[in-house]
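Reopening: Sugar ABC transporter permease still failing for me.
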Amino acid sequence: MNVSQRRYGDKLFDIGLYCLMVIAGIVTLYPFLNVLAISFNNSVDTVRGGITIFPREFTLDNYATIFAFDGLLTGFKNSVLRTVIGTIVGVLSASMMAYTLSRRDFQARKWMSVLFAMTMYFSGGLIPGYMLMRHLGLIGTFEVYIIPAILSVWNVFVVRSYIDNLPIALQESAKIDGANDWTIFWRIILPLCQPVLATIALFVAVGHWNAWFDTYLFNNMKAENTTLQYELMKVLQSTQSGNNYRDPNAQQAIASVSPESIKMAITIVVTVPILLVYPFLQRYFVKGMTLGAVKS
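Support: Ran it again with your exact input. Result attached.
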């Protein structure tokens, strides 16, 4: 095969790869654009079907219906506060525990790892969990969203695996220079773990942002501790059943929209904040940050 034939084959391969990527992009984006179009389309017209990626009759009534319910602003504030605090605490606790378990001079790391792993396969159950929260005095408090989710064993193992792949010579040289464990963790381990920390931060943030069941269990009678997902779940139930949910101003709005339109508008409301956060974390999803850091 000569050079011209090889270049022609490379061009064909590139064209095929580009076509494949375009198809994958369309398949990925179409469902989201379809949901977005339905959320902005007139509810009565949506029942006819046939909505693709553009609304036939543009309207903001679906979103106006959602925000006509009381509790949405309080739920949004609590969800943002819960997501920010829960993510920071979750990432720090997971990284600190992972660093401890990765230490070779920590003699109990093996049986501690086994003990932690057992919690991934066995749990006390819903009723014992509720009784524990009640005995701890967390029922009806904002802290019930943060304290039970402080440490995720899965995130600990993910970060520990990443730390195990870091050059041990970095820690040894820091000890020779007189650095203590906290300095090594804060100045060396954390900066090098930015990719994996960004990954678990996204997982933790999405988990806190999408959570609503714990609100239903522990804070359903505390309006000041409600969350956005729980309030939107009640909005969706109200539109499906036609019942009013606390706000007398929302009953007329419910009658003018279909549950399908409300469902799509709710999907956009809960998805957009995460989509806005992702670009800031994407740049950390890279490998090889320690390549060349140490010459062995």
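Residues 3-59 form one domain. If you still see a failure, please send the error message rather than a screenshot.
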